[in-house]
Amino acid sequence: LQVPNAPSQPLAGIESRRFTNKHSKKALKASLTLGILLGMFFVAWLPFFVTNVAQAVCGCVPAGFFDVLTWLGYCNSTMNPIIYPLFMRDFKRAMGKFLPCCRRSAEPRPSAISLSMRNSHSGPRAATSLKNVL
C-alpha cells in the first residue's frame, strides 16, 4: 500500500478546481450568448407573431404596422452574424479562416486539397500525388 504524499493532494484539488472554474466560465459564456440570441429573437419576432394572430382574428392591423414588424424580424436575422463573432471565439476563428476580410496576414489560406484531406479523416497518404488526385 502506498500512501499519497500530503503535498500532492492539495495540488490535485487545485487542478480540479481550476478545471471546474474553466468549464464554469465556458458554460456561463455560452449561456450568456444563448440568452442574448434568444432575447433578441423574442424581442424581434414576438410582436410580429402576436400581430399576425390579431390580424387573423379581427383584421384590425394596419398594413404599414405589419410591414414594420416584419422588417424588425428581418433585422434580427441580420444581427446574428454580428452577435456570433462577438461572443464566440471559435466562430470568429472559423470565419477568419475562410473570409478574406477577417483573415490575419500571417495566416495562409487553406487550399481546397488540404481541406478535403483534412475533412476525409484519412490522413496523409504516401502514394497520393496531385496527379492521382486530379
Structure, briefly:
By secondary structure, the chain is mainly α. It has helices at 8-58, 63-87, 89-98, 112-120, 130-133.
Summarize the SSE layout with pairings.
Layout: H1 8-58, H2 63-87, H3 89-98, H4 112-120, H5 130-133
Helix pairs in contact: 1-2, 2-3
What key attributes describe this structure?
single chain, 134 residues, mainly alpha, 5 helices
Can you give a write-up of this model?
By secondary structure, the protein is mostly helical. The chain has a domain at 14-96. The chain has helices at 8-58, 63-87, 89-98, 112-120, 130-133. α2 crosses α3 (89-98). The chain is elongated. 0% of the residues are buried. The model has no long low-confidence stretch (mean pLDDT 74). It is a multi-pass membrane protein. One of its GO terms (molecular function) is G protein-coupled receptor activity. Keywords: Cell membrane, G-protein coupled receptor, Membrane, Receptor, Transducer, Transmembrane, Transmembrane helix. This is 5HT6R protein. InterPro entries: GPCR_Rhodpsn, GPCR_Rhodpsn_7TM.
Termini separation: 63 Å
What characteristic shape results from the CA principal axes?
elongated
Please tell me the overall pLDDT: 74
Please report the number of helical segments: 5
Class from secondary-structure proportions: mainly alpha
The topology string of helices and strands comes to HHHHH
Report Rg: 26 Å
**Uncertain segments of ≥5 residues (pLDDT<50)?**
none
Q: Could you give a short account of the major beta sheet?
A: none
Helix content bin: over 70%
Assess the beta-strand content as a share of residues. under 5%
Beta-strand segment tally: 0
Oligomer: single chain
GO biological process, one term: adenylate cyclase-activating adrenergic receptor signaling pathway
Main location: membrane
Domain G-protein coupled receptors family 1 profile: 1-84
Keywords: Cell membrane, G-protein coupled receptor, Membrane, Receptor, Transducer, Transmembrane, Transmembrane helix
